[in-house]
Structures are given as C-alpha cells and as structure tokens.
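pls design
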C-alpha cells in the first residue's frame, strides 16, 4: 500500500474517544488483509470476536474445548494494546448439536462458562455472559435454556461467571432495547432485580443494529435510566443499514444517525464503550441477513471513510473530557 491509500494518515477514533473504548467486531479470517489490519490498528482500541468465542466454536463436543481461533485474536489484540470483549457465553444460537441433546443442560452451561472463562482469565476486559434472552414483547425468549432451565439460567450464568473470574466485567447484551419499549422495560426490570438481590452484573450492552432513520428519540433517556441502576452502558454491535446502492442523501442520513447514537452515549459518563459490528462494508453481516440492504459501517467496501466516519469522529472530539 502507498501513502495515498484512503485509510492512511487520518485521526484515530480510539484516540478521539479519550477514556472510552472504541472497538470493532473482528474476524480472524481477515487479519491477513493489510487494509483491514491497518484500520483496526490505527482506529480502534478494543476487539470483539465475531464468532470465535461462541459456543459452537469453543466447545464443539462436551468438555472438548477449542481456542485456536479465539487465541489468535486475543494475542493480536494484546500485541496491539487493545482490550478484548468476550462474546458470548450463553446464547440461543451458534450452539453445537450436543447442547440440545444434553441430559443436564444446567450443568453443561456451568461447565461451558467455567471452561471458557478459566482459559481467558486475566485476558478479557468484558464478557457478554448472556445474549438476547428476551423477545420483543418483553417475555423471556423461548430458547432451549429458558425451556429446560427456566428463568434461573440467566442469574446462574452470572453467578458462575463471577465465581470463575472475579475481575472481569460481566454484561447482559441485547438488540432492540435502544429506546424505551416493552423489551427494554423487561431488561431494565431484570437489571434492577439483579442489583437489588446482589447478583453480579456490571454492564448492559445495547447492540444498536439499526435501520436508517430509526434511532429512537428517547435513546439517551433510556440509557440514562439503566446507568442510574449502577451499571456501565456499552454500545456493542453498532451498524446502521440502508437499501443499496446507497444514495448521497442516505449516506448523509446515516452520518446523522451515527452522530445521534454516539452523542447519546457521550452524554452519559457511565457509557464507557462503543463497538461497531465490523470494520468495512466488505465483510458486513447485513447483506446476508437483510437482502437488499447494506452499507452499514463506517468504511465502505474499498476501505474508504464514509460520511458516518467523519460524523463519529467529530462527535467524539466534541465530547467533554
């Protein structure tokens, strides 16, 4: 690459974020691509493994753990002075088939949490302990964990996680809870209950997989009510999708949407981490999940900064120290 490449010689999002982390979801498969790693190294201060720490990747057979891919990401992060967010220990998706066949699912869940967290003790700043446990109406998701263990599985996961590694921060993570609605009310009630009963929970992750033009107007108010419970607030999987090919007007709207999300976080001292779900539109999950949509990230398919990048950078720079 030459010095004229579009991603070189620009300020850093991570530096502009000051005391907050500014991270990206990363795939080990792309670490051999120079533009990808240059942006990762120069712009971000934390890494979330996209798939490498999920259950099917780390424990494909009962008690048989596989950490090669995740270890590669952790070593990479530490060698570049980045934090690591562990993602995720208990989720209804990305499960190996044996989990569904387990005679004692509660013990299997405990063993999985212990096995993974012990391997990474001292190397992970935050763990998404439980991911996406609620449906849109605020009821518990009808996952295998809910159906066979019941409500207990969430608090038990956090108790086991704290006992395994007392020093990492433990998070609940979900989508569709950015504004005040039935789902965010249910998560709020869970967090409040956990805090009252002394169940260890340190942070709440707001995924922020958003559609263009849909940043909730009450997002800051919602984040603040969670912060008032005494937990850290994290933006964990931010992307803002739109129909493709995107127009100039849509890219400008996306920039404004990103600005709104970042400013909602920056207004709250307890909002300490922001992560985008990927680096470049080239590898975004969006087109494969939402046909006809894409262009969701800060860098386009050619690693060129989009208007959203500059909006985020400006918002970070304008934040109080």
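designed seq:
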């Amino acid at each position: 690459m030459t010095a004229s490449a579009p991603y070189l010689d620009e300020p850093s999002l991570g530096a502009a974020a000051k005391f907050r982390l500014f991270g990206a979801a990363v795939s080990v498969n792309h670490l051999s691509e120079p533009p990808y790693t240059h942006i990762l190294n120069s712009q971000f201060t934390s890494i979330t493994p996209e798939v490498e720490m999920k259950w099917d990747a780390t424990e494909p057979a009962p008690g048989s753990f596989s950490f090669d891919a995740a270890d590669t990401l952790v070593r990479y992060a530490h060698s570049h002075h980045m934090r690591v967010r562990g993602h995720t220990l208990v989720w209804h998706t990305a499960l190996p088939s044996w989990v569904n066949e387990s005679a004692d699912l509660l013990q299997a869940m405990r063993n999985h949490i212990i096995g993974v967290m012990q391997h990474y003790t001292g190397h992970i700043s935050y763990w998404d302990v439980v991911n996406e446990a609620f449906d849109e109406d605020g009821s518990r998701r009808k996952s295998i964990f809910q159906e066979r263990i019941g409500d207990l599985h969430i608090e038990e996961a956090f108790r086991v996680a704290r006992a395994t590694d007392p020093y990492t921060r433990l998070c609940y993570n979900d989508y569709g809870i950015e504004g005040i609605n039935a789902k965010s009310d249910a998560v709020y009630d869970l967090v409040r209950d956990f805090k009252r009963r002394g169940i260890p929970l340190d942070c709440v992750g707001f995924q922020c997989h958003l559609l263009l033009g849909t940043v909730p107007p009450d997002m800051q108010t919602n984040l603040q009510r969670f912060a008032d419970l005494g937990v850290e607030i994290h933006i964990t999987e931010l992307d803002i999708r739109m129909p493709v090919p995107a127009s100039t007007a849509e890219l400008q709207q996306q920039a404004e949407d990103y600005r709104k999300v970042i400013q909602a976080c920056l207004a709250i001292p307890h909002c300490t981490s922001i992560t985008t779900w990927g680096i470049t539109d080239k590898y975004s999950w969006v087109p494969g999940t939402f046909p006809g949509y894409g262009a969701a990230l800060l860098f386009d398919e050619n690693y060129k900064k989009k208007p959203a990048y500059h909006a985020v950078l400006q918002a970070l720079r304008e934040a109080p120290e």
